[in-house]
Amino acid sequence: MSRRQSRECDLQVLYQIDMSGTDPRHALGLFWQCFEPPVDTREFTTELVEGTHKERVRLDGMIADAADHWRIGRLPKVELNLLRMGVYELMSYPQISANVTINEAIEIARLYCGDDAPTFINGVLDRVAAVVGKKAQVDESKQ
């Protein structure tokens, strides 16, 4: 599995946590009962899920600051969790370029979200990247 697949697994587990209110460890255990990914995929997914869940209050604040005219409570759960995951990755993985993080989030949004989501995700994550000092130059022609 690739990091993209790890990110997709992360999104699915975070959504499960949001919808069920379950503990991240329990949600991951249930998820791994259904899927048997390679060890590196499992490790990266687990890091993203646990870190994103632990930091969600801080992440939500950063998203709220960057998402003009949107309240966190009004964001669809999939988009919110994708943003949380992207912001967490921007803050916690300096070895991954902001362009990669943002482009991955955009591509995942194309698979799991509505038509306007990729542009919205791009804008919010680009603003957050600037705030955390990882300003990205994402090619907007791909939007």
Description:
The chain is mostly helical and about 140 residues long. The protein has 7 helices and no strands. α3 (about 40-55) packs across α5 (about 75-90) and α6 packs antiparallel against α7. The protein is globular and about 40 Å long.
Topology, please?
Blueprint: H1 3-20, H2 24-34, H3 39-54, H4 56-66, H5 77-92, H6 98-112, H7 117-131
Helix pairs in contact: 1-2, 1-3, 1-5, 2-3, 3-5, 4-5, 5-6, 5-7, 6-7
Q: In one word, what is the shape?
A: globular
Helix content estimate: over 70%
Task: Please count the helical segments.
Answer: 7
Strand content: under 5%
Poorly predicted runs of 5 or more residues:
136-143
Number of strands: 0
Q: For the residues shown, what is the average pLDDT?
A: 90
Order of helices and strands: HHHHHHH
Structural class: mainly alpha
Biggest sheet: strands, sense, closure? none
